[in-house]
Amino acid sequence: MEKIIGGQTFTIKKGDLIIIPRGTPHQRINTKGKTFSLLLIKIFALPLPPKN
Question: What distance, in Å, lies between the first and last C-alpha atoms of the chain?
């Protein structure tokens, strides 16, 4: 795994909302013995073209 140099560390807890802007390098590190669930919602600037 590559290391992010000059990044910030945040401790999150149940119920927290995290917004990471597109193109921002990031990584997730779990605390030993803890589980992590993720819900990812992508919002596009323009609508996706219709499927044919």
Answer: 39
- What span, in angstroms and rounded, lies between the C-alpha atoms of 15 and 4? 26
The answer to whether 25 and 4 are in contact (CB under 8 A) is yes
pLDDT at position 1 is 60
Q: Is the dihedral of CA 15, 19, 23, 24 positive or negative?
A: negative
Supply the pTM of this predicted model. 0.52
Alpha-carbon distances of 40 from 3, 17, 33, 36, 44, rounded to whole Å? 23, 11, 23, 13, 13
